[in-house]
Design brief:
7-stranded parallel sheet, globular, 10 helices, Rossmann fold, about 15% strand, single chain, alpha/beta, about 300 residues, 3 domains
Length: about 300
Amino acid sequence: MGQTITAGSLKNDIKALARAISLVENEADNYQQLLQSIQPNTGTKVIGITGPPGAGKSTLVDALLDKLVTNGKKVAVLCVDPSSPFNLGAVLGDRIRMSDWYTHPNVFIRSLASRGAMGGLHPKIIEITDIVLAADFDYIMIETVGVGQSEIEIAGLADVTVVVVVPEAGDEIQTMKAGLMEIANVFAVNKGDRPGADKFIKNLRLMLAPAFTKTQVPVEVVKTIAHEKQGIDELLKAIDQYVQANHFNDKKAWLLTEKAYQLILKQRMSDIDKQTLKNNVTQALQSHTTFNLYNFVHQLNQQL
């Protein structure tokens, strides 16, 4: 499969793109050669959509899709779904909300299992995003699992990070404690027709104001009602403005540095097989009345 897919074929062949993602996911033969041959499209905007569970991320992505496609844009959506910790399979229920787009010629949707990875993302999300960047899309949207504080990884992958919250997110202090304040480039306060939405937005803006200097792009707070497709124009405008203002800055080098670090880390860990590790843990549990995780890891490190 790896020999039949070329970097050039990704631009105009959706089937080749889908196969290339599977090639990378499964680490099939020659997938590294494919990655080394691709040239990402620098004009594509990568949007990260994150936030706590139940905030309406999938509905918001659906509304953004509708607006972008109506404007003649080509859009790819990577949806990272929760995984079972036992078989690493994905729960794909949220994808029902985007079922209207699966056969649209200007839309590519791929669901990915998080496979237990922290950060709300897929363990090969960097490589998969670069594969999609090599195709001919105007926008790539990456929707994370929605696990809360640990999904800060999205900030190192996307050009702009949209954090979706709801008026019932709790008081302002609790919102800050959610761990999402530092990574948000744009806040989408979804379900803005609910009681207390305007007060929540006002307090959120007041809270953000002291955190930024004149040289930084302020964090926009946009009220949306995703299921009625309200506020989507304003949200898209805020996204585009942020990307344009931050296209050339030192952040790009830091993001690429973080990506390089993660790729090197995964390659160094490539000889650690999780199934083999599980077998070793099972054997240790059966042979000892007490199991000390740190002694187990120390002994395993000495063997490697």
